[in-house]
Design goal:
The protein is α/β, with parallel strands linked by helices and 393 residues long. 48% of the residues lie in helices and 10% in strands. It has a single domain, classed as TIM Barrel (Alpha-Beta Barrel). It has a five-stranded parallel β-sheet. The longest helix has 31 residues.
Length: 393
């Protein structure tokens, strides 16, 4: 019987080979899920959330039917909803299905346009002393009241932490590698404004009306992030290990090429080129369409990027960057949901035949599974059975 630590090492080696443009013994087969595993188990997180042991065991049940080598993204419970609610914050909410977590950004109080200078002067102070007080009612009273509320929120967070710890342990025991857990993480400065500070709509308006102020704010965020970053090139140089961090193509979906270079690519090159040269990789979670930007990644070392495709045609993307960056693709969520079993298998086969030779390809669906109806289960199981078998040397 195969030992799980041997399986984990095998999967890790295959990932490292694929990301380094060497043909692996088996093309790594992965999946991205949010809270979908609870739907697969025909229950909801709401029903099991207070029992970490049951919650974790329920989450991994899908692995009894679906064989995978790695999982990408945040595995387990993605947001501690009850902890937020105990503080009076409602920017993250549980969907009506008891599983889907919704970011209700419209409920958040954004930084005002006239507060940019205060933010640029000291982003940490602004975040802690201004924005958090605006957004979290429990922090608007006295220190003692806020502290007690924080302790209450921690008690609500404890089951989430314990559940996620157990899920990670279950994955390790099953030989499933958690990709993007051992390398440099980079949140593009514009994404910080976009997601956490100014909000989506306001940031896009500011980019058009006051681009110089947005750039100054991004420069300040980048400066602080780089000071806080613990990774150094020496951490990766010559190490026989797989180092793969994460970044996201998020606000970048809305940028023209000049803005993309200034607000995304320049920061990535300045902050991480030395780490890439030392052997680190970075997984780019793709959102939207970005085929027109792919040639920019040729400015980074070969093999530095692992790019998860979403709306773009993967075969066109392969022509553009497939010899330089690893593609994480292979099946579309739409096809899994609406196609026939044979259509799914035929599409996956075409991806393997095109992308696998020479390395630089790992199998992954183009969108995370979230709700019960996100995929036809027969299609899902069949295409993953095919991928696991066809991807062997």
């Amino acid at each position: 019987m195969e030992r799980m630590d041997d399986k984990l090492s095998f999967n890790k080696k295959n990932l490292k080979d694929a990301l380094s443009f060497r043909e692996p013994e088996k093309v790594p087969v992965g999946i991205e899920v949010a809270m979908w595993p609870y739907a697969y188990a025909e229950t909801s997180y709401e029903q099991v959330k207070n029992d970490p042991k049951t919650s974790a065991e329920t989450y991994v049940k899908f692995l009894d039917d679906l064989s995978i080598d790695y999982m990408w993204g945040r595995t387990g419970i993605t947001k501690p909803i009850d902890a937020f609610l105990s503080l009076g914050a409602d920017s993250f909410q549980m969907g009506s299905d008891g599983n889907s977590i919704v970011h209700a950004q419209t409920n958040e109080m954004p930084m005002e346009e006239w507060e940019y200078e205060e933010f640029i002067k000291d982003p940490h102070h602004y975040w802690r002393e201004v924005l958090l007080r605006k957004r979290i009612p429990a922090f608007q009273g006295s220190f003692d009241e806020a502290y007690q509320s924080f302790l209450n929120a921690l008690s609500k967070y404890r089951p989430v932490h314990e559940t996620n710890k157990r899920i990670s342990g279950e994955l390790t025991q099953r030989g499933v590698y958690e990709l993007s857990s051992n390398g440099p993480h980079f949140k593009v400065p514009l994404d910080t404004l976009f997601d956490q500070v100014r909000g989506m709509k306001n940031t896009l308006v500011d980019l058009r009306r006051r681009p110089e102020v947005v750039k100054r704010a991004c420069d300040r965020i980048f400066e602080i992030d780089m000071k806080n970053m613990k990774e150094k090139p020496s951490d990766y140089m010559g190490k026989d290990d797989l180092f793969c961090g994460i970044t996201v193509y998020h606000s970048a979906c809305f940028l023209n090429m000049k803005q993309f270079d200034e607000m995304f690519m320049d920061y990535l090159k300045k902050g991480f080129t030395e780490l890439f040269e030392a052997g680190a990789h970075m997984f780019l979670k793709g959102e939207g369409k970005f085929l027109h930007t792919l040639n920019r990644f040729r400015d980074l070392p070969k093999g530095a990027m692992v790019i998860m495709l979403e709306q773009d045609d993967p075969f066109e993307c392969y022509k553009e960057i497939g010899d330089w960056a690893t593609l994480a693709t292979g099946i579309s969520a739409d096809l899994l949901k609406y196609g026939t079993k044979q259509q799914c298998i035929d599409y996956a086969k075409k991806c393997f035949d095109t992308f696998a030779p020479g390395g630089g390809f790992i199998f992954l669906q183009d969108r995370p599974l979230m709700g019960a109806k996100d995929a036809n289960i027969d299609n899902l199981i069949s295409v993953y059975e095919f991928a696991n078998e066809y991807g062997k040397k």
